[in-house]
Amino acid sequence: MTLHDTIHRVTRRVIANSRPTRAAYLDLMQREADNRPDRSTVSCSNLAHAYAGSLEDQEALKANRGPNLGIVSAYNDMLSAHQPYGRYPERLKIYAREVGATAQVAGGTPAMCDGVTQGETGMELSLFSRDVIALSTGVALSHAMFDGVLTLGICDKIVPGLLIGALRFGHLPCIFVPSGPMPSGIPNKEKQRVRQLYAEGKVGRAELLESELGSYHSPGTCTFYGTANSNQMMMELMGLHIPGAAFVQPGTKLRQALDREAVHRVAAIGQDGDDYRPLARCVDEKSIVNAAVGLLATGGSTNHAIHLPAMARAAGIVFDWNDLAELSSAVPLLAHVYPNGAGDVNQFHAAGGMGYVVGELLEAGLAHRDVLTVGRGDLSDYALEPGLDEDRLTWREPGPSGDAEMLRPVSDPFQPDGGMRLVEGNLGRACFKSSAVERDRWTIEAPCRVFETQHQVAEAFKAGELDRDVIVVVRFQGPRANGMPELHKLTPPLGVLQDRGYRVALITDGRMSGASGKVPAAIHCTPEALGGGPLARLRDGDTIRLCAASGELSTTADLASRDPAPEPRPEGGTGRELFAMFRNFADSAEKGGSAMLATAGL
Question: Looking at 363, 396, 429, which one is the last position of a domain?
Fold first, then answer.
């Protein structure tokens, strides 16, 4: 199938805009590959330090018999998605020995859970944890002991951080190893219903906690289609998973077979073999476009409007919101997974899942087939679904959609575009996830009420001050102000107001969760309020127009005649003071909101 004109045009633009930075990155990776030390010439003292703890593999390491694989793990058992990783290293080492390789845990990274920190002060560390994870990955791989990399991570900032760090060692092959989603719990609509009842004061904490535990109940990834599961989708579209690995549940034989294949495969695609597939070549302009296309086709998390540009920069690639919005105009919405639909990722996977989506995109010319993947071929491998034939890993055609309410073909999509729209005007530039909002709410024009924290919004809601048509503005929530926390606590009260019949919208320079939807929102607004951005000049009662259809984000107020509001002082506690450097040097949300990339000149 011929590549769609818009996909071709955007890809060519990304290639052109990236030419000098991409060339510099690839030159660096070639030098790293050329300078990779031969361990047989490395100081024996150095090697002794590296081998001393690996008693079972010590003889193989001393003899330099085969590739040595570095495992970078984001394991902790506070995060349900990462709890299964606790036993992974010992299994991965066994799988490595099967093909004459060795494996060592190169290092660990932090892995915070946005679900645990929602509405709490710890959320102000969340976005910058991605930089810390990237730095931790860099430290882990700096020992020059490894011929390939296995990354163990799933959730929100963790996969982007692992990828950014690993890309600076892009002369090595790298495979991402997911652990899969937990089994489905209570229906998502029931969870949402109880949350809104709690917001209205109609049920108490005991009922709310029982509902939440019915949804988040066991090891594995949360089953809604938020940032964590969007990460897994993107790793498939970028060809960095074993094909079909994203949504196979933990503890199953198929999960173990996919993990085993990941180890065998990364051992086979190193520099010393005959099928060299370094990460630097797998992640190119086409694979970044594929990731964006997958995000749009599945209604994925808005957080990736920040993460995609950051991941691209780490590979010398320039990708911005203009590219994302133009791709969105051509990519149809093929999936309705909660919160955009009723079913969760387990139902999505059962209906055909990633194999079905990739196949539809390739057949329609909406994704690049000719990309280098960690599999045995190109992206065509990812249009299949994995299975077992007498314990042997196989792949097969997924067939037609098993649930038309969950998955549809390109010829009959849920909507003709990807639903990630750029809105802009005299209030700046922002993202609007139209795929999660009913069309009759794509345009909201109303007086605004200005807040500086989500807690102030909650208090005003409880006092009945928002029972009207209103656009809620929450400012000083950008990367430089307070680390750009996710404002997921805003969703229940604003949803209640909308259900009461009011015309309601949100505008913020902060983030909203990949699980957010329903209420129209212009998020990640840039320039942020800190430093005199337009949001800092708004006042209560100013009329704002937000329109996803026309791409408008504007006010009739004369902002130029006003002084900006006083900037709040950063608060300490919960370790926030330790992140002052990250806040001071962070760049804009559209560039990825990263201090590390900005100061590195990437």
Answer: 396
Do 392 and 424 lie in one domain? The reply is: no
pLDDT in tens, 417-452: 998 999 999 999 999 998 888 999 999 999 999 999
H helix and E strand count, the chain: 22, 14
Cα distances (angstroms) measured from residue 348 to each of 167, 244, 353, 516: 30, 13, 5, 18
Question: Tokens 């133009």 sit at which residue?
Answer: 326
Q: What residues contact 3, with CB distance under 8 A and at least 6 apart?
A: 365, 368
Domain that holds residue 475: 420-568
Residues 435, 367: one domain? no
282 with 166, same domain: the answer is: yes
Residue 222, annotated ligand binder? yes
Burial 19-51 (b: 16+ CB within 10 A, else e): eebbeebbeebeebeeebeebeeeeeeebeebb
Strand 521-526 vs strand 428-433: parallel, antiparallel, or unpaired?
A: antiparallel
8-state DSSP, 382: G
Q: Are residues 306 and 162 in the same domain?
A: yes
Q: How many domains does the chain have?
A: 2
For the whole model, what pTM was predicted?
0.95
Give the CATH number of the domain where residue 550 resides.
3.50.30.80
Considering the domain architecture, whether residues 358 and 295 belong to the same structural domain is answered as: yes
**Ligand-binding site membership of 431 (annotated):** no
- Tracing tokens 């163990």 back to the chain, one arrives at 152
Could you read off the pLDDT of 230-246 as tens digits, one per residue? 999 999 999 999 999 99
Indicate left, alpha or beta for 391 from its phi (over 0: left) and psi (-120 to 50: alpha).
left
Please say whether the beta carbons of 101 and 69 come within 8 A.
yes
Q: Are residues 156 and 238 in the same domain?
A: yes
584: CB partners within 8 A, 6+ apart:
480, 595
pLDDT bin (cut points 50, 70, 90) of residue 514 is low
Assess whether 250 and 379 both reside in one domain: yes
Residue 473 in tokens: 């503005």
Q: What is residue 480's predicted lDDT score, i.e. its pLDDT?
A: 96
